[in-house]
Design a protein that fits this description.
By secondary structure, the chain is α/β, with parallel strands linked by helices. The chain has helices at about 1-5, 15-25, 35-40, 70-85, 130-140, 150-155, 165-180, 185-205, 205-215, 230-235, 240-245, 245-255, 260-265, 270-280, and strands at about 35, 50-55, 60-65, 95-100, 105-115, 115-125. The chain is globular.
């Protein structure tokens, strides 16, 4: 996971496409350059921010968060800013923005000590109209039209507008739409797939499920098979109900055909159909 994230994630994203993401956060910048491996390896045990972007006037750390930003998170966010500031290669200030699935937009103030207060922004994604975004892209696919960059990025953010188990359900839905998009630029694919990979890594707890979702994303994502820790075979050994039934259900809900799922999960189509009938799908 680490090697993939540092070396490849967002590697080919253009300033223009990353700028769309920044504009959605209410910011404007001609320069939007993702930071890569050299900074992220400073302190791998404590320093693992999701994404760092160099903008015109600041270095911006983006974090995806599915729980309230309590003091434990604030302390971690403060360390991200401090480490980045200490090791930056420019004179720009360092700021943190949290993309939250559970909280409204706000400014958080965390008291470090009597002389210092750490402030950062929470950007709530719970106001995104997920169904409208999904249907808009699906309709364009149906009409053989390519969604624009903003529509693609909004689609990749849809799971982050959900709470709890709904996040995983929407990850499946969005992934199955994204992989149907043809003629994406390398930059658009890097950004959309990168956001989906980070979302999957952070919010899909079962390693077998994470591994299958990454396979759905394509060959590039399959380079990180090690993060599944060989639990795919363990899942099969435990039987369908204990190992992969939930995954099959989510794939069916997202629109995959039983024959396609059987091939992806390496099980018989009969077993897939049994699960489909059991859950009335």
């Amino acid at each position: 996971m680490a090697e993939f994230q540092e070396d490849m994630l967002f590697k080919n994203v253009s300033d223009e496409d990353a700028g769309i993401l920044i504009e959605l956060l209410g910011k404007k910048s001609k320069k939007v350059k993702p930071w890569t491996k050299e900074l992220r390896h400073i302190d791998p045990k404590n320093f693992r921010p999701d994404l760092i972007l160099e903008l015109d006037d600041e270095n911006l750390i983006l974090e995806f968060q599915s729980t309230d930003v309590v003091d434990d998170f604030s302390r971690r966010g403060h360390s991200y800013v401090a480490i980045t500031d200490q090791n930056k290669k420019n004179k720009k200030e360092v700021n943190l923005v949290v993309l939250s699935t559970v909280e409204d937009s706000k400014i958080v103030e965390y008291k470090v000590n009597k002389l210092n207060v750490f402030r950062y922004e929470v950007f709530g994604l719970n106001n995104l109209d997920s169904e409208e975004i999904i249907n808009n892209v699906k309709n364009k696919i149906k009409d053989n039209k390519l969604p624009n960059g903003r529509e693609i990025i909004l689609l990749s953010l849809v799971p982050l507008s959900k709470k709890g188990e709904n996040i995983v359900e929407y990850i499946y839905r969005v992934v199955n739409i994204i992989i149907k998009l043809k003629n994406l630029t390398i930059s658009q694919k890097d950004l959309a797939f990168g956001i989906m990979w980070l979302t999957t890594d952070k919010f899909v707890e079962d390693s077998l499920e994470r591994n299958i979702i990454c396979d759905l994303l394509g060959d590039r994502m399959s380079l990180i098979h090690e993060y599944g820790e060989n639990k795919y075979n363990d899942g099969k050994d435990k039987g369908i109900e204990q190992g992969i039934e939930l995954i099959i259900v989510n794939l069916l809900k997202s629109g995959d055909e039983a024959s396609v799922i059987a091939e992806k999960a390496d099980i018989s189509i009969e077993d897939v159909l049994k699960i489909k009938e059991k859950h009335n799908l």
